[in-house]
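User: I'm preparing a small set of examples for a lab meeting where we compare how different chains pack in three dimensions. I only have the primary sequence for this one, and I'd like the structure in token form so I can line it up with the others. Please keep the answer compact; I'll paste it straight into my notes.
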Amino acid sequence: ALQEPVAGFQKYKQFDDFYGYLEQEVEGTMVQDFLQHLLQSEIVNSGILEDLKTKGIREKKEPKDLRIKMELRHKQVKENRMKRQKELELLKQEKAMKKLAVSEAQKQLQEETMRKALKAKKEEAAIQKQMVILRKELGEKRHLMEEARKMERKRHNLKKIQTLIEVGLSPAELTYLNCDNEEQKEEQAKKQELLNKVNTADQKLWKREQFSEQNGGSNLKKPEKSEKTKCWLRCKPKNKNVKGKKQQKKRLN
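Assistant: Understood. Below is the structure token output for the 253-residue chain.
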């Protein structure tokens, strides 16, 4: 063993050649040491080895035929597609049912709103009709009450006139009492006052003419009475006891 290195050393006469030889020897020794180290060291742990073992067993159990794998894959894809299609169909049906329910609810709400509006309209029409009837009845009632009051006033006035006729009042006074309202009574009173003034003027003129006739001896005739005076004389009561009649009139009023 010792002779071989020595023999190898002696065959190199130049230093460079010998150095190259040593370099190769060193590299070879290093490679051998590294390989020996790898062989002696644990590259993978027990977990990795167990996984590799399990994978190998599973690969042995799985069928190696690719057609079976493709069929299984197609079957799984088909099942997934059918499942997804079924879910979409159910979702579509749910949406349709919800839409139908909303539409039905809106329809019922519209019908209820229309029914309430129609009912309110009928009630309003009935109320208006009843109000018209009540107004008509109220107007008729007022008219009847007014007619009854007029008849009562006329009856009262006729009774009063009859009583006054019995005591001998003039037609002018009876006409005044027979007036229905205050305006007519006031107008009649003004006419009576005017007639009284005309009568007073005629009386004064007649007395003056009589006085002139007595003093002058002339045969003057009594002046003609005016139409208003004649009317007043016709309406003047014939009974001389006028004072008693006035007192009777006051008692009646």
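A couple of notes for your slides: The two ends are 185 Å apart (CA to CA). The chain has eight helices and no strands.

User: Perfect, thanks.
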